[in-house]
Specification:
Length: 1009
């Protein structure tokens, strides 16, 4: 076996500072109190009631409850038996097909639609956390009318009466003076209404704007094919090359991508595919790559140029800038050779940050390699103007006085619009402005009228999935606050007053239906579509578009190839946040407290920069910097990220809001913004970023709420730490594994001794397996567990004190031949739930028997026995137990938080202050399946019980089942040569097994390294 890699969690560990060594020695390490900002009592109480309480309980333990019966039993409903309904969440014009669990008329859990081929039952963090948004007490609840600095609550009828006369006059003038700004949507119903507006109100201005959009990708396909097209990739291809494209993470089709990619990552089931990632910032895709090359964005474009030349694409010359970097030059040569040897079986994918002309050449590369129609397919898109261009035209019309009435239907353009457009100032020049929104946000604050918007779980709608499949959204609950939809307001503009979203959707479906005049056939088709959540077999037809004869030439010297450009010539990249997206989820406590998949920060964004670049600037982690770009400045905290490209800074959008709510920031509520508002730097002509950035280091320090060094497994002291890390995270190259399948177990030193007689489980024996070759570290399992098990949110201050409450964490490890070389860094993610040990160390020390084994081998917690000694946590070598320090649900007694009580899963025990919590293998799901099987007088089938983390995993990396069934999937995975137990030398005999990660490196690159 070759020289083992060095594993480390982050820069603190690389530096081996005194602070880090002190951290290692403590069981419950705490950040130096001198570096912590003072915690105001006001902020603490706000978070306690508005964020932490969101997931901890359903009221005071001794609250008096009145149980009332239905006057009439609703059809098809059995009290206490959950029902599931298909619906759709649309984000930035792409529909996510969902299946929502509802108890007695209240939705409590969001999962992916198992019947839809794109998601296959999986759901991302946004969809799962959206259930919390439904019950958020900060949601807009009343219509507000503003006049100058004064505002007053009013009614929707008053709004209709005030706007009716204006709209009547606008219709008579053909819509002159009317502008409508919507979010990007693929809704056929919205498209139908917009077409009517274009006909009936031809002088009206209708614009769609999304701050996170695919304008450059769309324009790149237009250059390549003469019309906008969307590429669909099959990541089961032999060779996959991503160019700043996060196909496994921040991509609307990540569910299908993860599943198809993972299908080729089992070395025992066939050959492995190979993934190359060329990117500036760490992405989920880069973390899974067999080879990753860190290049700043302009050099990624140069890489495309050199790749085309090395492949032999006619008319292309290699970039001189890339040739200045030996590693990049060798990388492009190896990638080109690999692609050529797998013609028709490869994928080359451009990302959103690539300029349109560069993306066009990537399409040309796929055509040259004969990938088109095989591993890369295309579907046509609706032709539409660019989002920045459309918004720029609207602002110009507002400033000129051409717009007298503006309707903003969804979105928050005052916050998300490019800084140079000064959207808020332009909006104030409009006589009447109407904002439809879920929150009284930044745009609502400057609008004449604000109308509460219905949550997607309260509304009828339609949209199209990424592959073009029409999907339907149905309400699972009546609007809690009388919210309206964009469909209803668009109908009102057209004079169809009182028409509901349901009627609009039915009309659209009828117009598209093949049933003709047959009412019964239409009704049957409608009911099937609503039941299924989509229309089966109606995905957009794929085509092979003809490549344009002449593509624009790329300059041979696109950028300087210097590894470290001078300060003032740095590059900046704007990316959507992996947790808050564009900022629309800023008031969602689940997402704010979710650790970022790579940095492991919570409640913050940061200026990501490479350690090597930071060293040249004299910058340390957490130090404040001033970013100056295109005449604008922003101060924010820096985060030193190993493996980040040199000479560039990456910043996430979505933070720094002042009208988000008491969780995300509120001026009215006296709540400081969370994080830094990077929209303040973002211009309309460079929404992805660009060069010319200056970074000034400030003499101020900022403390992140960062979990990467919490709960460190440290049983043998710092001297043995490196050796042990190699045992925690086990990896091998595919050639090594093929030559020696036992390579995974070289670290095992197990002595199976016990003071107690081994218990024999004659019936069911539950266990889990997690495949590290498939796990992308996407956080979906963490969010699924949060929603399923009523986990509390503790707030930023408590996270800083190591008191986060997630039952499953994802440890992220960097690895390198030399930990001081941050250029050649690989990443591996390891989910860590309770290991459900047979010889559980926690059980041996509990003085009250609060933790014990069930007859099926589960390590159970009896919460009403627990007295909070925390002995079990002290004795747990995996550090997977969480102590509940505070009564996080206390403020649910407040009538204003009444809706929050509806957000929790009634199947899961509500925990109180002072008890220990941990993963239970979703015992409630085990019990429910057991009851069903018993009633049907049959045994439980293999795969019938699916834990929450397993269900949502896009890569299907988690398996659960009966270890006593030798034919079960989990038994087969436990028996795999790749299977190992964490810290097996302790003889705790975990029920959770890990399958070692097997990489498929290119031998040429390994040899050159």
């Amino acid at each position: 076996m070759k020289q083992p890699k060095s594993y480390f969690r982050g820069n603190l560990e690389v530096e081996r500072s005194e602070e880090f060594l002190k951290l290692l020695k403590r069981e419950f390490p705490e950040i130096d109190p001198e570096h912590l900002p003072p915690v105001s009592r006001r902020r603490f109480v706000q978070l306690l009631g508005a964020s932490a309480s969101l997931a901890a309980a359903t009221g005071c333990r001794w609250e008096d409850e009145k149980i009332l019966t239905f006057n009439s039993q609703p059809e098809n409903r059995i009290p206490g038996v959950p029902q599931r309904f298909a619906t759709t969440l649309e984000i930035a014009g792409v529909a996510a097909p969902l299946l929502v669990t509802s108890y007695d008329g209240r939705p409590i859990k969001v999962d992916g639609n198992p019947d839809h081929p794109l998601v296959n039952g999986t759901a991302d963090v946004f969809a799962q956390a959206s259930i919390l948004g439904l019950y958020d007490p900060d949601r807009s609840q009343v219509v507000v009318e503003r006049s100058g600095s004064n505002s007053a609550n009013t009614t929707f009828d008053a709004f209709v009466a005030a706007l009716r006369q204006k709209l009547t006059a606008l219709r008579q003038s053909g819509g002159a003076g009317l502008a409508i700004l919507t979010e990007e949507t693929s809704s056929d119903s919205v498209a139908r209404l917009k077409a009517r507006i274009a006909t009936e109100l031809p002088k009206a201005m209708v614009v769609a704007y999304e701050p996170v959009n695919d304008d450059d990708e769309r324009e790149g396909s237009r250059i390549a094919f003469g019309k906008p097209m969307r590429a669909l990739y099959d990541l089961a291809a032999d060779v996959v090359v991503t160019l700043d494209a996060d196909l496994l993470g921040a991509h609307p089709m990540m569910h299908a991508h993860a599943r198809s990619f993972a299908s080729r990552r089992n070395p025992d089931a066939g050959s492995l595919n190979r993934l190359y990632a060329i990117e500036s910032n760490h992405s989920t895709t880069g973390a899974m790559a067999d080879h990753r090359l860190a290049l700043r964005p302009s050099l990624v474009a140069a890489f495309v140029q050199s790749l085309a030349a090395r492949l032999g694409v006619p008319g292309m010359a290699a970039s001189k800038a890339l040739d200045e970097q030996p590693r990049a030059k060798a990388f492009v040569e190896a990638v080109a050779k690999d692609l050529l040897s797998h013609k028709g079986r490869g994928v080359v994918a451009p990302g959103r940050t690539l300029p349109p002309a560069v993306a066009a050449h990537v399409h040309r590369i796929n055509a040259f390699l004969e990938n088109a129609s095989k591993t890369v397919k295309y579907v046509a898109l609706r032709d539409a103007p660019g989002h920045a261009a459309g918004l720029r035209d609207l602002v110009a019309a507002m400033n000129s006085g051409a717009v007298r009435t503006l309707l903003v239907l969804g979105g928050n353009p005052v916050y998300t619009a490019p800084a140079d457009l000064a959207f808020a100032d332009a909006m104030k020049k409009v006589e009447t402005t109407v904002h439809l929104g879920l929150y009284a946000d930044e745009t609502a604050a400057v609008s004449t009228w604000h109308v509460p918007q219905a949550h997607y779980l309260e509304a009828w709608n339609d949209a199209r999935a990424y592959d073009g499949t029409p999907t339907l959204a149905q309400p699972l609950i009546a609007p809690l606050y009388g919210g309206k939809t964009a469909l209803e307001l668009l109908s009102f503009v057209l004079g169809d007053e009182g028409v509901s979203d349901f009627e609009v959707l039915r009309a659209t479906f009828k117009a598209q239906s093949q049933s003709g005049a047959d009412a019964l056939a239409f009704e049957s088709a409608w009911r099937h579509a609503v039941h299924d959540g989509f229309v089966k077999g109606t995905s957009a037809a794929t085509e092979i578009p003809a490549l344009a004869a002449n593509l624009p030439a790329l300059p041979t010297d696109a950028t300087s190839g210097a590894e470290f450009p001078a300060n003032g010539q740095f590059e900046i990249t704007f990316v959507p946040c992996t947790k808050l997206f564009d900022g629309r989820f800023a008031n969602n406590g689940w997402l704010q407290e979710l650790p970022d998949f790579m940095t492991k920060t919570t409640w913050d964004n940061a200026a990501l920069i490479a350690p090597g670049t930071a060293k040249k600037l004299g910058l340390v982690n957490g130090q404040m910097v001033k970013l100056s770009w295109k005449g604008r400045e922003l101060e924010m905290a820096a985060y030193l990220l190993p493996g980040h490209a040199h000479g560039c800074v990456t910043v996430a959008l979505g933070y720094g809001r002042d009208h988000a709510g008491v969780v995300g920031g509120s001026l009215e509520g006296d709540v400081e913004p969370v994080g830094f508002n990077t929209y303040a730097l973002r211009p309309s002509d460079a929404m992805s970023g660009g060069g010319g950035l200056t970074v000034d280091v400030l003499r101020k320090h900022y403390e992140f709420a960062m979990v990467q060094d919490h709960h460190m497994i440290d049983t043998t002291g710092k001297e043995g730490r490196q050796e042990r890390l190699g045992a925690l995270v086990r990896e091998a190259d595919v050639a090594e594994y093929a030559a020696n399948p036992d390579i995974v177990h070289e670290h095992d030193h197990v002595t199976p001794l016990s003071l107690w007689k081994t218990f024999e489980y004659e019936g069911l024996r539950w266990g889990m397996a997690i495949d590290l070759s498939k796990c992308t570290g996407c956080n979906a399992c963490v969010m699924a567990c949060q929603s399923e098990n009523n986990l509390p949110i503790v707030g930023k201050e408590m996270v800083r004190k190591n008191r986060e409450m997630h039952w499953i964490r994802i440890d992220r490890y960097f690895s390198a031949e030399d930990i001081h070389d941050d250029d050649d860094v690989q990443v591996v993610s390891q989910p860590l739930p309770c290991q459900q040990c047979e010889n559980a160390p926690c059980e041996q020390v509990c003085p009250v028997g609060a933790t014990m084994h069930s007859s099926e081998g589960l390590n159970d917690m009896v919460y009403n026995r627990c007295v909070g000694t925390r002995y079990c946590s002290n004795n747990c070598p995996y550090k997977v137990r969480r102590f509940n320090y505070f009564n996080y649900h206390e403020d649910l007694k407040d009538s204003a938080n009444e809706a929050l009580k509806m957000a929790f899963n009634p199947e899961v025990t509500v925990r109180a202050r002072g008890v220990m919590e941990k993963c239970t293998y979703c015992v409630q799901r085990i019990q429910n399946t057991r009851i069903t099987a018993k009633n049907q007088k049959r045994p439980i089938k293999d795969g019938e019980i699916v834990t929450a983390c397993q269900q949502t995993c896009p890569a299907q990396a988690i398996t659960f089942g009966d270890l006593n069934d030798q034919n079960s999937m989990v038994s087969k995975e436990h028996a795999s040569k790749r299977s190992y137990s964490l810290l097996s030398e302790l003889n705790s005999r975990p029920r959770t097994a890990y399958l070692a990660r097997i990489r498929n490196p290119n031998p040429e690159l390994v040899a050159k390294a």
